[in-house]
Each structure stands twice: as structure tokens, then as C-alpha cells.
Amino acid sequence: SAVISQKPSRDICQRGTSLTIQCQVDSQVTMMFWYRQQPGQSLTLIATANQGSEATYESGFVIDKFPISRPNLTFSTLTVSNMSPEDSSIYLCSVRCGYTFGSGTRLTVV
Amino acid sequence: AQTVTQSQPEMSVQEAETVTLSCTYDTSESDYYLFWYKQPPSRQMILVIRQEAYKQQNATENRFSVNFQKAAKSFSLKISDSQLGDAAMYFCAYRNTGTASKLTFGTGTRLQVTL
């Protein structure tokens, strides 16, 4: 199974600012997935990130708000842009290899 | 679209006892994957067990086993000899077999383990 290092583990941000979350995988993977878990809720897929192409976003999520980079087969970033308190959530990355997840980023927007 | 339903928001079990968490799903596919994930307060999503739909044999991982009823679209998780460390949110998830397929999660069941 792949091992994913995700950072930051948590952050408190002012509204209107942006935060970039990083995920590093210990092996090469074709696809990486970004999920959001709102307080007390289940996980919802934000987008699927392939290396060398634009990410595919799920309904309700747009690139301007959640830009994703995938510069190589072991790394991806998710940016939460122009944040508001409604963006306060746990954000997790995941890969199919072993169906593993990163440790999550707890974001609080004040 | 596939849906996953967990009808038990909370469950409680005494230490060393057995508990079963329920999950049902809806799909028109014949081949797919089902998962149980554990999320402790640390928020890490930990894969507990996985089942391929084409396999009739129920998956087992140590104290964790599933009862997979394909015709009924039911996928319950049994935890035997419950331990305090089993206390967590448990999420049932579904995935199609396509390479780009995402995980679809249920709403979760919070498991409490009491002494």
C-alpha cells in the first residue's frame, strides 16, 4: 500500500485568504483524489488529479475555488482560495494503491 | 448514481463483545468494490476491510469480518472481541471498477466501546 504524507495537519486562516495543502506519495500513482469532510459529515470528492492533465472536478466544485496541481506522479497540491467560514472542513487526499488516505488537514476559517 | 446508506448513526458495544454495523448500497453494476473505513478522532481514514463483489467469500481481517449479501445489496461489518481502540467513526464506501472511479461514502456510524 502507498504511504501518503499530507501537510499541514491543521491551520487557522483568515477569511479571504488561501491555503495550499500538499500530499506526497511514496510511490508513483496515476491518479490522486481530493476529498472534503465538512464538520460531522461524510467525505465528498472534490476532484481527481491526473499527472499532466487538468483535474476533473465533481459537481459543485470549481477550479477557481479549488485549484489543483499535479506536477509529477508522486505529488499534488490542493488550494482552497478566497476562504470563507463555510470552507472550514477536513481535507484529505487519497490514492487507489491500497485505497489509502493522507492524514488530513483540519482547516478552520475565521 | 450509486448511493451508500448507513442507517445507524451511533452504536455502542461493551469491551470484548461483538457488534455489527450495517450498510446498504444501490448500484446497477455487477462488479464493484466495497470498503469499511475507520476514522478515529485523529481524523486519519484507515482501511479496515475490502470486498470485491465478484468474490462470494466474505472478507476477514483478524477481528473484523463482513457479511456481504450481493442480492440484497448489503455489506455489514462485524467486530469481534471489541477493544477500546475500536471506538471511532466507521464509514462504508463503494467504488466501481473503472480506473477513474471514486469512492462513494455512507454517512458513517459512530461506535462507542464501553468497559
> From the alpha-carbon coordinates, what is the Rg of chain A to the nearest angstrom?
13 Å
Largest two-chain interface: A-B, 23 and 17 residues
Q: How does the overall form of chain B come out from the CA principal axes?
A: globular
General shape of chain A = globular
Output the strand order for the largest sheet of chain A: 2-10-9-4-5-6
Which structural category fits the helices and strands of chain A? mainly beta
Report the order of strands and helices of chain B. Answer: EEEEEEEEEEEE
Give the tally of β-strands of chain B: 12
| Tally of DSSP β-strands of chain A | 10
Distance between the first and last residues' Cα of chain B: 41 Å
- Model regions low in confidence, pLDDT < 50 over at least 5 residues of chain B: none
Structural class of chain B: mainly beta
The fraction of residues assigned to DSSP E strands of chain B is over 45%
The oligomeric state is: heterodimer
Rounded mean pLDDT score of chain B: 94
From the N-terminal CA to the C-terminal CA of chain A, the straight-line distance is 37 Å
- How many individual helices of chain B? 0
**Biggest sheet overview of chain A:** 6 strands, mixed
Please tell me about this protein's structure.
The complex is a heterodimer of chains A (110) and B (115). With 110 residues, chain A is mainly β. Chain A has strands at residues 4-7, 10-13, 19-25, 31-37, 43-50, 56-57, 68-72, 75-80, 89-95, 105-109. In chain A, the strands form 2 sheets. In chain A, strands 2-10-9-4-5-6 form a 6-stranded mixed β-sheet, with no helix packed on it. In chain A, strands 1-3-8-7 form a 4-stranded antiparallel β-sheet, with no helix packed on it. Chain B has 115 residues and is mainly β. Chain B is 0% helix and 52% strand. Chain B contains no helices and 12 strands. Chain B starts with a strand and ends with a strand. The model of chain B has no long low-confidence stretch (mean pLDDT 94).
